[in-house]
Design brief:
By secondary structure, the chain is mostly beta strands. 4% of the residues lie in helices and 32% in strands. The structure holds zinc ion. The site of zinc ion (ZN) has 6 residues, from loops.
Length: 246
Amino acid sequence: MAHTRIGPAALAVLGLAFIAFGAAVKTGVIEIHRGGGGTRAADTVAVRTGAGDVEMPAGQANGKSVAPTTAPPTPKELVSDTLVAEAAANDSNAVRPTPDELAQLASDLIIPVVGVEPKDLLDTFDEARGNRRHNALDIPAPRGTPVISATAGKVLRVFSSQAGGLMVYASDPTDRFVLMYAHLDRYANGLADGMPLQRGDTIGFVGTTGNAPPNVPHLHFGIARTSNVGRWWTGMPVDPRPLLRR
Ligand SMILES: [Zn+2]
């Protein structure tokens, strides 16, 4: 069986890390296991959460296969974005997502920046930022590009922090996952805590608030699996990139 590993070089560190400003987003590795004879149907995607690999059939939920892609290189300016998880290994709300949970989430998600396609996504989850790992996906886009809700759910908290700038924490429809959007230029009018969200609702606009490099506007997007979305700053980080197929 062919075994292709797609992932950043820095795989040495395995541990639990958490997002300082709320949610926890764990560095991940994508492994594509190809079935014999190259049958796409047998492909699986493994999402490494730090508590072990979680395998899910590629394209299980939407009936489409996930083509292994090579992410474009990260603009070097992005490494100054040190919005990363704060170590919180004892977070009791961190839950390892099951394959079914990840498949369901993947079937639900859309890329939360208008005009960005799966092939454009950077593999930034494992990158070192400062002395920690990034644990999230950076999606560069022109300043002012609409940031849209990746899934239905609700706004857990409209938040701001020194590193994250203008941020939104939201839950998915199952209340298993917290989605975090950071470095927004501004919020959508009327956005408020507790507001229900439909997938595709505009929640804000791409910017550089917080510690984002001023010349590289981008959305910092994190996902965490938590046992309690009420504690929106907790959870086990999950790499969004292999889950974003449309
Ligand atoms: Zn980032």
